[in-house]
Amino acid sequence: MDYPGFNLSTSQHSNLPEGYNIFPNRVDLDQAVIYVERVPDTVQTDQIDWGFRVGLMYGIDHHFTTAKGWLSQQLLQCHRQYGFDPLMVYFDLYIPHVADGLNIRIGPCISVPDIEAQLAVNNYTYSHSLLFSYDPFTQTGIIGTLKLNNRWLINLGILAGNDIAPWASGAKPSLTACVAYTFRDANDQIYPCATGINNDQRVPNNNPSNPFLVKHLSIRNKR
Q1: Burial class (CB in 10 A: 0-12, 13-18, 19+), 153
Q2: pLDDT tens digits, one per residue of 109-136
Q3: Closest CA to 192 of 160, 153, 222, 151
Q4: Cα Rg for the chain, rounded, in angstroms?
């Protein structure tokens, strides 16, 4: 899916701190996105299932999605306006017999829990909340999602940090821990989540505005 855009601005150089459509008064290709995926069947409870997703993106939005070590030289060294980002290349293993279901994800993926869908495949909105100029975008490692019952969900993972590959300089094993509680007939959810937990004062991140531990508290109303 292609995601071009145009904006009018009083700025002559940059729309920052607004995220994504950062270049003023011009037409840009924000995102060209391709998904190749197999989704595991997490409804059935009879057998172990598997899945994967390869999500590839090209456009100016790589300024906000690039993770150090994943073709990051395009942005961090060459400062290209347009770049290619393999931001999701993960494998899923679903085990139905652990509580109400356990999914284990390995590889680079969108950070948990996140706030909204960012890619053109899932979100047609041109602009995004300012949080996406600050929030970690991708994380590489292993993360498990355990459904205890219809109300409680737990995420627990070991990752290389925020927006960094395990082999890149500055990567450090970091904990992600989240818990979700759903209530009011599945219309509302409280989802506190902490990412990048380690004993360093700095969490690696290609975005210099976000060098510290990031914590999320998401309160969602699904109605």
Answers
A1: buried
A2: 988 866 566 777 777 666 666 766 677 7
A3: 153
A4: 18
Please work out, in degrees rounded to the nearest 5, the angle formed at the alpha carbon of residue 108 by the alpha carbons of 106 and 112. 90
**Residue 131 pLDDT:** 67
The answer to whether 96 touches 47, Cβ cutoff 8 Å, is yes
Mean pLDDT, residues 105-111 taken together? 93
Domain boundaries, the chain: 2-221
Mean pLDDT of 172-201: 87
**Cis before residue 113, ω within 30 degrees of 0?**
yes
Tallying the residues shown for the chain, one arrives at 223
- Bond into 17 cis (ω within 30): yes
Structure confidence at residue 220 (pLDDT): 40
Report the distance separating Cα 171 and Cα 167, nearest Å.
Answer: 7
Convert the pLDDT of each residue in 122-172 to its tens digit: 776 666 667 666 777 889 999 999 999 999 999 999 999 888 999 998 898
Pairing of strands 152-159, 138-147: antiparallel
Mapped onto helix, strand or coil, the DSSP state of residue 65 is helix
Residue 113 and residue 191 in contact, taking contact as beta carbons nearer than 8 Å = yes
Q: What is the DSSP letter of 132?
A: G
Write the DSSP string, 160-220: S-SSB-TTSTT---EEEEEEEEEETTTTEEEEEEEEEESSSS----SSTT--S-EEEEEEE
User: Would the pTM of this model clear 0.85, i.e. be above it?
Assistant: no
